[in-house]
Amino acid sequence: MELGLFRGITKAAALLAALVFLIACSPKLDWRTVQSPQERYTALFPGKPDKLDRRIPYLDQEFLQVLEAVKIDDDIYSVSTIQLPANQSASLSKLLSQLQANLIDRAKASGGDVAVEDGFYKTADKQRLSTQDYFIDLKSNGKSQQLMRVRWINRVASNGDSWIYQISVLRTNAATENAKTFFAKEEYENFFTDFVPE
Fold this sequence. Notes:
It contains four helices and ten strands, in the order αβββββαββββααβ. The chain is of the alpha+beta class and 198 residues long.
């Protein structure tokens, strides 16, 4: 009798553990490695991203910006890429500063907060390089509306072209949670950690 009861409890516990595992492996997050040879990176997206491109004006010229993004519930995971030809590399630092200022100034103008944390990323040849993560709280009427984590990476190709990558997750319908705490969760951390530029 006791042995049968023990087996029943063991089976129930195993079934419960399997159920918890299946719930934890949310079908909403269908992680897949996405290779973008033209944009020179590999990324881990939580679903199949859509790809679009547009021309962005900068001073008296235009640059092509390629965006790959996927929306999962209230989260938008995206990688934006801009290529600057070698003969326009003098524009690099100003363009990068403008991209950063657009987001940071918008957050500050809304009464939001911006926190910066040192981090690192790995390249395709296994180099570990430093970067910074920006944790942004965008507000409206004094209340958090959107949270964002964004990282900018600049790489120079062997032909002298420069590549600017903007890796970000935007959380719409944000609660009052702190952006840095919110984006420390594994599903967000994986997206940033597994972005690998050439």
